[in-house]
Amino acid sequence: MSDQPNIPAQSQDLPGSEAALQPAAEMIRDGYKGADKLTGKVALVTGADSGIGRSVAIHFAREGADVAVAYLSETDDAQETKRLVEAEGARCHLIAGDLANADTCRATVAETIEVLGGLNILVNNAGTQWVNTDLTTLPDAQWEDTFAANMHSQFYLAKAALAHMTAGDTIINNASVNAYIGPDFLVDYSATKGAIIAFTRSLSNQVVGRGIRVNAVAPGPVWTPLQPATLGAHDPEMVENFGANTPMGRCGQPSELGPCFVFLASRDASFMSGQTLHPNGGIVVNG
């Protein structure tokens, strides 16, 4: 992928549908060859019904991992992710539920272990956002809901997962370039992503002595259903030519994010913990 896709103005309802995305996003590049980097591993990927999470699940499967896919409510998209993961020869288990709820997070980890036999890789990818351009009008409930979905879920899931993790296992948290650039229309979302960066660094320091690595990925604009379901729901014109203002002049594709997560999950990143990767189209964030 090197050219900006022709992205028209569009909108969706939350949580968004991969099947309705125009144009379709690329999940894995033609010619991507697995190298058994995750053979024998079990991964739990949240928000993997679509977007970055689906790409991560497919890449992990091609590298040999079995994958639990946690999602909110988009059953059709989740079933397609399952089909794609199983087409790679991996096992895939779907788990629906609202990860803003602590009990759901604990149950999700427990079900992953019960069905797939363990948990070696936790990818905290699920999240949401809403547009607001004036803090004085930002509803208290929206602030709380954004933190519950984006940040609290990562705490609940990591807390539950760490009780079962041992040396060589890893946690990867999905943050955002917005934690560094602070767009004025996503104050609450950006605040959660900044918290995720700090959470990643501190948790890494807490568990790295056990041989468990914790890292983050901070994507720039990536073409996923979240964009038309949030930016587009506010104003369909906001997603027209989405990402064209990056130094590369285009948005990213999920296929360009999946390999970042493979790297951090594998022994290739054995000397990395508490760090953040920045696949963002050339935006310099100095973070």
UniProtKB/TrEMBL annotation:
Pfam families xref list: adh_short_C2
The keyword DNA damage belongs to this UniProt entry's keyword annotation: no
GO molecular function: oxidoreductase activity, acting on CH-OH group of donors
Organism ancestry: Bacteria, Pseudomonadati, Pseudomonadota, Gammaproteobacteria, Salinisphaerales
PANTHER family for this protein: NADPH-DEPENDENT ALDEHYDE REDUCTASE-LIKE PROTEIN, CHLOROPLASTIC-RELATED (PTHR48107), OXIDOREDUCTASE, SHORT-CHAIN DEHYDROGENASE_REDUCTASE FAMILY (AFU_ORTHOLOGUE AFUA_4G05870) (PTHR48107:SF26)
InterPro entries named among the record's database cross-references: NAD(P)-bd_dom_sf (IPR036291), Sc_DH/Rdtase_CS (IPR020904), SDR_fam (IPR002347)
Family label: Belongs to the short-chain dehydrogenases/reductases (SDR) family.
Entry protein name: Short-chain dehydrogenase
Keyword Oxidoreductase (UniProt): yes
Keywords of the record: Oxidoreductase
